[in-house]
Sequence to fold (80 residues):
Amino acid sequence: MSCGCSGNLSDGQAIVDHVKSKGKQNFSPKVPHIISCDCGEAFTLETVIMNCPNCEMTFVVKPCGSADVNNIKQAGIKYA
Ligand SMILES: [Zn+2]
Fold:
């Protein structure tokens, strides 16, 4: 089961671009991780690209790596 996420994408913005290029931005992560944003907000990551509801920081995780919370990256405010 490959989602095409080969290579080492460690930069959040590069991951956002990659996921969007595959049309998978509305996919659900394998695990509904709770995100603790730098602004103090906590929310559930319901799609693999999601903005913080408070400060609009964009969080992203590759669909194939979405079971691991360590794969969640920040991509910048309103990047998505
Ligand atoms: Zn935030």
Q: What stands out?
A: The radius of gyration is 11 Å. The mean pLDDT is 92. The longest strand covers residues 73-77. Residues 28-77 form one domain.
